[in-house]
Amino acid sequence: MSPQRIIPLLLAGGTGTRLWPVSRDAMPKQFLPLVGKQSTYQQALARVASPDLFEPPIVMTSDAFRFFARHQAEELGIKATVVLEPMRRDSAPAIAAGAALARDRNPDAIVLAIAADHVILDTDLFEEACRTARDGAVAGHIVTFGIRPSAPKTSYGYIKRGDGLAIDGLHRVASFVEKPDAATAAGYVAQNYLWNSGNFLFRADRLLAELARFEPQMVEAIEAAIAAAKTDLGFVRLDTEAFARAPQKSIDYAVMEKTERAAVVESRFRWSDIGSWDAVFEIAPRDERGNATSGPVVTFDTKDCIVHAEDRLTAVLGLNDLIVVTTPDAVLVLPRARAEDVKKLVAELNAQGRAEAKEHRRVYRPWGHYDSVDGGDRFQVKRIVVTPGGKLSLQKHHHRAEHWVVVRGTAEVTIGDKVQMVHENESIFIPIGTVHRLANPGRIMLELIEVQTGSYLGEDDIIRLDDVYRRN
């Protein structure tokens, strides 16, 4: 009899501010290609795609990111069960919900809970660690993946190993320790502590039983949220009222620091939570002068820098040990040693009410995206891209008119009761207050330039009359 396959549980609902201006609340790091051409979420999906070892995945995310999660999985040919958390409750409720759904799929389910925004290299070594952890889970342990430190990092938690278990490569967890100061971290490394990667493998029923011991209110809330869950456009939407009763706690605090069943496997794969730009620098490929670059970048007489550019040429000269990040609407420059302070900078931007703190110039929607390329008094210019089959809501505006020029593909345009096709190099006008809709009936991307004119051009001047994506 072949060993039981593992159900991957990807946690993809969080946001990250330390990788601003690329990662923002409206588009967090797990859906972005920070290291390589695929997003870290897609890399995680590909990592658990071997049919010999893994079953189809469960993805926990939020309503705001549901279409990204499904679309990016579909790009890889992976059919994932996408589950929507009504609100953020930290990792314990999310893992509990995923475990309960896996248990409903298979009463003996073995679950691998991994963060979708981590980078793990060496897939063969990762699978090797999963097989060892699976043996531990079958024996009743809740296994965490420990990473041998490459340096005394203060940004990671640590694990002290206890006695070895009967399964080769597996140890009991003697203790979990929080992020230390530099001197303490150096001591941990000298004593062979491991980094706590925050990824776990366990039997679903065992994890839920331990959680019921320590957090009965959480288990009750999660079970009720699943019992009252609804399917919405193929997504599993957990019940809001029930889920809100779950205490907000990490899985470490809720279970791992309390249970006697915690075990750790020392994992030999390269790992990073890419929690800061300096962490990206450490794991990204570098040139002969130690620079890690991505996008249209030119370096001259520059050493040990990370330079990340989107869309526009970014040239750096005579710099050492800096982080340079350019996006269409923001530029970030700082010493690599201050990478952890980006979070403080974003807090200041939020305090000043800067929209760039949370939102990109390019805004993603279920049907595609738009980019605000210019604007002024009483006008705004946008580039709109609609995916094949995409359809905007049937809507109207009280304060603006719109002019559309199709530059690629064919647009299906509804104005009032009339539906017409608008082809490349053709244009159409939408008067103020007119009910209208834009759709892409073709097989290639639809691209158009929209010029808005009027007394008010805010996104809240959209009155949706019908929406296939069921947005409020």
Account of the protein in words:
- The protein is of the alpha/beta class and 472 residues long.
- It has 11 helices and 30 strands.
- A 6-stranded antiparallel sheet has the order 20-21-22-29-24-27, with no helix packed on it. The protein has a 5-stranded mixed beta barrel with strand order 6-9-7-8-12.
- Helix 3 (91-105) packs across helix 7.
Layout of strands and helices, then pairs:
Layout: E1 6-11, H1 40-47, E2 58-62, H2 66-75, E3 81-85, H3 91-105, E4 110-115, E5 119-120, H4 123-138, E6 142-147, E7 158-164, E8 170-177, H5 182-190, E9 194-203, H6 204-214, H7 216-227, E10 230-232, E11 235-237, H8 240-243, H9 251-256, E12 262-267, E13 271-272, H10 277-283, E14 292-294, E15 297-300, E16 306-309, E17 314-317, E18 322-327, E19 330-335, H11 342-351, E20 362-365, E21 368-376, E22 379-386, E23 394-396, E24 400-408, E25 411-415, E26 418-422, E27 427-430, E28 436-439, E29 446-454, E30 463-466
Parallel strand pairs: 1-2, 1-4, 2-3, 3-11, 6-12, 14-16, 15-17, 16-18
Antiparallel strand pairs: 4-9, 5-13, 6-9, 7-8, 7-9, 8-12, 10-11, 18-19, 20-21, 21-22, 22-29, 23-30, 24-27, 24-29, 25-26, 25-28
Return the structural class.
alpha/beta
Through-space gap between termini: 50 Å
Q: Taking all residues together, what is the mean pLDDT?
A: 95
Count of separate DSSP helical elements: 11
Radius of gyration: 24 Å
Q: Describe the biggest sheet? A: 6 strands, antiparallel
User: Ranges with pLDDT <50 over ≥5 residues?
Assistant: none
Please state the overall shape, judged from the principal axes of the Cα atoms.
globular
Share in helix: 10-25%
Number of strands: 30
